[in-house]
Predict the structure of Isocitrate lyase/phosphoenolpyruvate mutase family protein.
Amino acid sequence: MSISHTQTASSTGRARLFRNLHTSGRPLVLPNAWDVASARVVEDAGAAAIATTSAGVSWSLGAADGDRLGRDLAVGLVARVSAAVRLPVTADIEGGYADDPDGVAVTVRDVVAAGAVGINLEDAHHAGPAAAPRPVGEQAERIAAARQAADPDALFINARIDTYLLSAGDPETRLADTLDRAEAYVAAGADGIFVPGVTDPAIVSALAEGVRAPLNVLAGPGASTVEDLARLGVARVSLGSSIAEAAYAVVRRGAREVLTSGTYETLAGALDYGELNDLLRGPVA
């Protein structure tokens, strides 16, 4: 994929903007999108950046989440979203769609060429009967490969730690284990640390204090408000796959309603056809 000087300058500006949006106590809020239409809707709602959700992307393209989608389809989606919005785009690339660090580097180069200025790279390994965190050293090598594949001025690497999401290890030492992973990942080249699965304000506060990088947490129903998370020192708040899940819930409720009662109340309050169509009309200026 060839990149012009103008494209490079524009991408560098977006990358710089995206990096500067990560401020402890004044978090970047990311309602994650999964296709061009959802990205345009999120942009129109006033978001400062666009983040993809790997689960939503995978589902929309006919695959299960968990490194099952494949690099080409994932990169193609990033390219379409990046071309469709004016905002910086950060891509959830799961485990890098690769078995080894060299493969992660290939994915990162492709994603940057597709227009992304940020990535999420998770340490969960989905081989075997159940997902589990990769060994720290192994994941650090994958992060280092990602860092070598893209200059810090061009790409913000958000290293995801799944110790809490997967309830991995001893609960008594989980916080210390997470902080150890964060330290190793930052040393390997990560710019930010993402710890999904944490809702306890005391743990969020301890992570914000103990991590030497902007802290990203996953929010949704039952989690602290953005304002409360800001007070705890969080620098980035993501909604992950929750908006996509809510959208598909409407599909199921609407389908069941019309197929059983023959009514359509589930569809009340839908986004207007003309408004949505206008969001997708014509290229980005």
User: Anything to note?
Assistant: The CA atoms of residues 15 and 117 lie 5 Å apart.
